[in-house]
Design goal:
Number of helices: 16
Shape: globular
Structural class: alpha+beta
Distance between the termini: 56 Å
Strand order of the largest sheet: 6-5-9-7-8
Low-confidence stretches: 1-66
């Protein structure tokens, strides 16, 4: 079919045939509807209908009474609005009660964009820039704004590829290729074009296209990653967003117009640039950009390896799976990880003064399996590793500090008996025999059960815990006696060039499956606890990540495809009437892009066995 018939061509809106009702035809006899673009004008038109007593008649002979109203409850207060009122109008009435911009509404458990018209009685919860769905919407929208401005500034024909890679320190790292010189001067021009569009409050339009037309559209536009991705979609229609005459595909919600996108900056960084984002806690100012260089380098190296393997996005991986290449992909990824663990063990063996291997990382990074595999590699090099769990150095329950809510704070450094840990480790370093404690979690107290340890010349301690990278935790140990490892699931596989996969999503999927299998938690409980887990990581782990001697990336390219059949049933079980349903629905949509792979060829030593089961290491 001719892409111009859809009203969009080559990523630009074409003057193709458009119906009076704002729709455009497609090859399958479908119609692509555009949502209201100017809520104020629409509202004024409806007020005119009410004044004149007119009600427009639909094509099928049914009447829509424009003066009919629907009751909307916001913050416990009910108010009637005319049928068809955009949620943007209702949000504007409530905005004074919120310190941050309202970007979406939660309508009885379903997220809705602000330009969606009111069609029922409902309860609305306002989603602002401080809420996670709001932050995601802002990020997605400002990426769209940046892309439109970049193509406008440079020229469509001169852009080969713009790839939004990953998040780093309240910014997105982006690489751009084409017939241009990427420097700060160019970025300043792009940023100024972005601000022009913001001042103009340009509407962000959403249209629904037949999937085959969308594939043709993006292929003609040169966005082959999107065309290939949509080939694996089973839905008959997809949503395409347009900003002036630039169009793109995003899996998620958008703000109604560019005036909502006030806080951003473009800055040259390494071999690309960063799009800086608002502060997490105060979205009315730009977040600080203090990138952890070692973590960035680990992400960058992983992205380049994925690109070299031609598996840098979901479409390329789906292609590999559909052509029978899943087994080879799994085995090659596992071999690469084993080599990286061996290289770390080799480096430790070369440092003869090292007696303490300190391992830390955020939740669901695979620390337990990594510790076992590292110990195996150390054994192969003639060393004798001993595992030490820092949990055994918790203070007794009555001495544990409490947080601002009066609850025990088990994650802060204050919950650890730092001095006892340092005394025991120094004595071991000096060749003394030490009786190691065991923490009884039921009693909330340390116990001593005759577990004696003396370090010989080849002995080395492998210590895993939240605070292992914090120098305050091991302050009495000589620096040369410690080898510090930061481990995290730093995924670089993205849905396509403009839709990234947050590393936190990969870890959350891991945790949902592990919690269900080993702890009996349902997905709702895991999702509910996740923000608290993330806050603990922000306080106790991430500030120390760049102090590590090495960054170990525990992400495996195939893991989301592997986890899909495990996690999907758990997410479908989340009730629709709970707060966690919105997040469960988002994750389900995310998983729908992946073809699944079976676990048959996943080795028993795989780090992913820690989550799906069937591994050879104790939990």
């Amino acid at each position: 079919m001719d892409p111009a018939r859809s009203g969009i061509i080559g990523g630009r809106r074409a003057p193709g045939p458009v119906h009076r009702n704002g729709s455009s035809p497609c090859s399958q006899g479908c119609t692509a509807f555009f949502l209201p673009l100017q809520p104020a004008a629409v509202q004024s038109e409806r007020q005119d209908h009410r004044r004149n007593g007119n009600a427009p008649q639909s094509r099928g002979g049914y009447f829509m009474e424009m003066t009919s109203t629907r009751t909307v409850i916001v913050d416990g207060k009910a108010q009637d609005y005319p049928l068809g009122t955009p949620y943007q109008v209702i949000a504007a009435d409530a905005q004074d009660r919120y310190p941050s911009d309202i970007l979406l509404v939660d309508r009885d458990g379903k997220l809705c964009e602000l330009n969606k018209p009111l069609d029922r009685d409902c309860t609305l919860r306002m989603i602002t820039a401080v809420d996670r769905p709001g932050r995601q919407t802002y990020e997605r929208s400002v990426v769209f704004l940046m892309l439109a401005a970049f193509y406008d500034t440079v020229g469509t024909e001169r852009v080969q590829r713009i790839s939004v890679e990953y998040s780093i320190s309240r910014a997105l790292f982006i690489r751009a290729k084409g017939d241009f010189i990427l420097d700060q001067a160019l970025l300043d021009r792009v940023e100024e074009r972005m601000r022009q569009l913001v001042r103009q409050a340009v509407p962000i339009r959403k249209s629904s296209l037949c999937t085959e037309d969308a594939v043709e559209l993006f292929r003609s536009r040169g966005m082959l990653d999107k065309a290939q991705l949509l080939r694996f979609r089973i839905s008959s229609r997809v949503n395409v967003y347009s900003l002036e005459d630039f169009s793109d595909y995003f899996y998620g919600y958008m703000v109604p117009d560019t005036s909502y996108l006030k806080w951003f900056a473009l800055q040259i960084f390494e071999d690309g640039f960063v799009l800086r984002l608002p502060d997490l806690r105060d979205p009315c100012r730009l977040g600080a950009f203090t990138p952890p260089i070692k973590v960035f380098q680990a992400l960058h190296d992983a992205a380049l390896r994925s690109e070299a393997l031609h598996i840098s996005n979901v479409a390329e991986m789906n292609q590999r799976i559909s052509q029978g290449g899943a087994t080879q992909m799994i085995l090659s990824q596992e071999a690469l990880m084993e080599k990286q663990i061996g290289d770390i063990a080799e480096e430790i063996a070369k440092r003869r003064d090292v007696r303490f291997v300190m391992i830390a990382g955020p939740s669901s990074s695979g620390k337990t399996t990594f510790s076992h595999r590292l110990s195996t590699q150390l054994l192969a090099r003639g060393m004798r590793p001993h595992a030490i769990a820092t949990d055994n150095y918790f203070k007794n329950r009555e001495d544990t500090p409490r947080d601002e809510n009066g609850q025990y704070d088990f994650e802060g450094l204050g919950a650890m008996d730092v001095e006892q840990f340092n005394r025991d480790m120094v004595r071991l370093l000096n060749g003394e025999t030490v009786e190691l404690p065991h923490f009884n979690f039921k009693k909330g107290a340390r116990e001593y059960n005759g577990d004696l340890l003396t370090l010989g010349p080849q002995d080395i301690l492998v210590i895993e815990g939240i605070h292992c990278l914090n120098d305050q935790f091991s302050h009495a140990l000589p620096k040369e006696s410690k080898y510090r490892i930061y481990i995290s699931c730093l995924t670089t596989l993205n849905v396509d060039d403009h839709n990234r996969i947050p590393t936190t999503d990969a870890r959350l999927l891991r945790r949902i499956e592990r919690d269900a299998r080993t702890r009996g938690y349902n997905a709702r409980a895991t999702i509910q606890l996740w923000p608290s887990v993330r806050r603990g990581e922000e306080r106790n782990i991430f500030p120390h990540q760049d102090s590590a001697d090495v960054i170990f990336n525990s992400a495996l390219l195939y893991e989301t495809a592997l986890l899909k059949p495990y996690v999907e049933p758990l997410l479908f079980a989340v009730p629709k009437d709970c707060e966690e349903y919105i997040e469960a629905k988002r994750l389900l949509k995310f998983l729908s892009y992946f073809l699944p792979v079976p676990a048959d060829d996943v080795p028993r030593t795989s780090l992913l066995r820690e989550f799906i089961g069937g591994g050879c290491y104790p939990g």
